[in-house]
Write a structure and sequence with these properties.
heterodimer, A: about 150 residues, alpha+beta, 2 domains, 4-stranded antiparallel β-sheet, about 45% helix, B: about 0% strand, rod-shaped
């Protein structure tokens, strides 16, 4: 009879510990899901072919660790119709990197954090052309290596 | 660990209400929820991971095709 209270407390303790571990499991689960959801904005198949189109526009390939190309300076590196193409394909920014992308990630340069997050997911030892698209206020990234 | 404790104390927990039937029903409900929850999470997580890997493969093959065409 005197054990009833003890058993009840133990039950409550077990249920609390169980609930805590389930909450921990759920938070791990949702962080993995969030990570995967973020990747939806990287390397969509349409965007990969759009990057190919932009790659074909390049006339003067820039040298150096990195070059940022946008609507205002695209004619320095690409065909004269680059502005129309950028507008048509919803391109915000083009980043051309050297073969050491890790340096760009570590440097404090004027590229957005989301771009840096994307750079971490690609092959860091190849010269690459990375394009940021902006559709409905969302940024999408895609890239091709400059082989 | 907690699930092991739950199993050990099941018989005692069942006796709390003073009735074996009530105890079995409540414990069955708890176990069912637990198993369903874990199964659902595992299924969702694995489907996300499989889909992610498949898409990555398709994209890398598409990129290789583009490099080969050039």
């Amino acid at each position: 009879m005197s054990n009833k209270g003890f058993i009840f407390i133990e039950t409550v303790v077990v249920l609390v510990v169980l609930a805590a571990s389930l909450i921990g499991l759920y938070s791990t689960f949702s962080s993995v899901i969030n990570n995967i959801e973020k990747r939806k904005q990287y390397d969509n198949i349409n965007d990969v072919y759009k990057v190919k189109i932009i790659k074909d526009l390049i006339v003067n390939e820039p040298s150096g660790t990195y070059t940022v190309i946008n609507n205002s300076n695209c004619t320095n590196y690409m065909n004269s119709d680059c502005k129309e193409v950028f507008s048509e394909l919803a391109v915000s920014e083009v980043l051309i990197t050297g073969n050491n992308i890790q340096t760009i990630i570590d440097l404090d340069i004027d590229i957005s954090n989301t771009m840096k997050e994307y750079l971490k997911t690609i092959n860091k030892n190849e010269e690459s052309l990375i394009v940021r698209f902006n559709r409905s206020g969302e940024n999408y990234y895609s890239s091709l290596e400059l082989r | 660990m907690d699930i092991i404790f739950l199993f050990f104390y099941t018989r005692d927990i069942i006796k709390i209400g003073g009735s074996m039937k009530k105890g079995i029903i409540s414990m069955s409900v708890i176990y069912t929820f637990l198993i369903l929850f874990i199964l659902t999470m595992t299924t969702i997580l694995s489907s996300y991971i499989i889909r992610n890997n498949l898409v990555k493969e398709v994209i890398s093959e598409a990129k290789e095709e583009i490099y080969n065409v050039e």
